[in-house]
Design brief:
Chain lengths: 290, 275
């Protein structure tokens, strides 16, 4: 009876297990093998040892991708965090039509990401884009800025568009956390004469540690792996100024059809991603223990 | 009293800024879609002075955008239907049965979360080509399961755990089989969670970009995100049509969230709070 029951359980699990093995574990192992081979589309490929890695590491585009991925991830997460926290604090106050505003401020995150980045590409347009027009109109700038094709503004512009689309996830998660913190804590702090800033530091923030941890962990990984904002806004340019690693894998693997080198790039980034995750987790644990 | 007034002023001032920042790009998308090319490129105006639907008509007749929207819809609904069934059974099995190796599936799902798509898309591409599915919608339906199923299984595991197993046990004492109890007790009670997981699955599939970009290569098999991204590089004066396309691509998702906002916010909050 017990074995029959556990067989039933396994049967229910079988499709998911097959999918995970076939579409996650097998491709993962295959990617590692590709990184050690000279496979191209149509040829079986031979084991070539560390050749792809040595080649990739000597490539200036690869070091640009490392720097850009870190800059993009750290600045985007920081902006989303601050903006998300500010929005959550505002929505947690007693304001009129709170449900309406909560739904409205969630809209960027509900919109399909590709739609958002196409809209931002149009907003940034140097010839007829709204941002340039408005800045010229109110006299802040004298001539249009080529936001996406100037090396000094491209990365910042991509980060802003990405942050605009993704801050609501932070906001709604933090808001959900704030609503579980007991009002009595604030009431007694009020009686003791604690300022709003002290209340935030000593009640709100500690109450949110767990959620902050989960949100930062998930979104750091997602941000480091972002592809769409780069592909749709700059394509990695101008001259690699926004070339993050996902874009580099795409350019090498799909546009140049160098599967081995592309797989080597993604394999080299795995320790970096794991490192990022460990740093975030450690920082949080230190905070939580402090 | 003084402090409370200044806080109220700050709150509403910040709220106004946030609403403005969110509203401008959304407004600009809709305004652009409704403007004539003259308004867009010659006499600049913030508002559409002569609103017209010509961009919507053009994007449908010239670019055949309805084909791409239909492709997205077919892929997203098929993926979602398979995902909900497969992940509901898997979550039920993991939460309610005891057998060896159960916890490994949970670990595999977490592993999938940490694993970047950038690492998987080239191997998946070679698998798809080897199966003879290159440049087909089937390749997307199959490979999208690699992220929808882990996501929904994880979400439903949380949901099923929150429902006491005693309810099913009572039904089984009354002569119901374990599977019968699943259909009569657990599924109906978890309806909000199942709806939420279906919405997430549909949205993930509708919005997916990288795999669709790599796997499909002609205008009849492209999903809507790829078609729109290909239009960017074509004509210089394409923005009216592009924004019309962007509006059309957002409509199904907007409707879905409008109808089911409660479930989604609940599901999201539950997921974030429980971790």
């Amino acid at each position: 009876m017990r074995t029959r029951e556990s067989l039933g359980g396994m049967a229910l699990l079988a499709p998911t297990l097959l999918l995970l093995l076939g579409l996650v574990l097998y491709p993962f192992c295959y990617a590692i093998w590709l990184a050690f081979s000279d496979k191209t589309v149509g040829s079986p490929g031979q084991y070539v040892g560390l050749r792809n890695f040595i080649y990739v590491l000597s490539w200036p585009q690869f070091s640009a991708a490392v720097t850009n991925t870190i800059v993009f991830t750290v600045s985007a997460v920081a902006i989303k965090f601050v903006l998300g926290m500010a929005v959550a604090l505002v929505l947690n106050q007693r304001i009129r039509a709170r449900n309406f505003f909560r739904a409205f401020l969630l809209l960027p995150w509900v919109m399909p990401a590709f739609v958002v980045y196409l809209v931002w590409r149009w907003l940034y347009d140097p010839l007829a884009g709204l941002i340039n027009y408005a800045l010229l109109d109110i006299g802040v700038i004298a001539s249009p800025i080529a936001f996406l094709s100037d090396r000094s503004t491209a990365m910042g512009s991509v980060v802003v568009a990405h942050a605009w689309r993704n801050f609501p996830f932070y906001a709604i998660s933090f808001l959900a956390g704030m609503q579980t913190i007991s009002q009595e804590l604030y009431d007694s702090a009020q009686v003791d004469g604690a300022s709003r800033i002290r209340q935030f530091r000593h009640i709100t923030l500690p109450g949110l540690y767990h959620i902050i941890g989960v949100v930062l962990l998930l979104t750091t990984i997602q941000t480091a792996n972002a592809f769409e904002p780069i592909y749709l806004l700059t394509g990695g340019g101008p001259s690699d100024a926004t070339m993050v690693y996902t874009m580099l894998v795409y350019v090498m693997g799909i546009m140049n059809l160098r599967l081995g080198e592309a797989a080597a790039v993604s394999t080299l980034f795995l320790p970096l991603l794991v490192g990022l995750v460990l740093v975030v987790t450690m920082l949080l644990q230190k905070k939580a223990n402090a | 009293m003084h402090e409370s007034l200044s806080i109220r002023v700050t709150t509403y001032a910040l709220l106004a800024i946030f609403v403005f920042l969110v509203a401008v790009p959304l407004f600009w998308m809709v305004a652009t879609a409704l403007k004539s090319n003259k308004d867009l490129y010659e006499d600049f105006s913030y508002l559409p002075t002569r609103p017209t639907l010509q961009h919507f008509v053009r994007v449908i007749t010239r670019e055949d955008l309805l084909t791409n929207i239909r492709n997205s819809f077919v892929v997203a609904t098929t993926t979602t239907a398979v995902t909900v069934v497969v992940s509901a059974f898997a979550a039920f099995s993991i939460v309610r049965y005891r057998y060896w190796g159960r916890e490994w599936v949970g670990r595999l799902i977490l592993f999938k979360y940490l694993l970047p798509t950038a690492m998987l898309f080239i191997p998946l591409y070679t698998i798809v080509v080897a199966m003879g599915l290159g440049n087909t919608l089937k390749s997307l339906m199959l490979t999208y399961l690699s992220f929808t199923v882990p996501f929904c299984t994880w979400m439903l595991m949380g949901y099923f755990r929150s429902i006491p197993p005693e309810l099913e046990e009572h039904a089984m004492v009354d002569g119901c089989s374990k599977i019968g109890a699943l259909f009569r007790i657990l599924f109906p009670l978890s309806a909000p969670g199942i709806v939420a997981s279906a919405i997430f699955s549909f949205t993930l599939a509708w919005n997916e970009f990288l795999l669709a970009l790599v796997f499909t290569s002609d205008h009849t098999t492209m999903t809507i995100p790829i078609k729109l991204s290909m239009m960017v590089v074509g004509d210089q004066y394409i923005w009216g049509q592009l924004m019309a396309g962007a509006v059309l691509a957002s409509v199904p998702i907007a409707i879905l969230y409008f109808l089911a906002q409660r479930f989604v916010v609940q599901g999201l909050a539950a997921g974030a709070v429980k971790g």
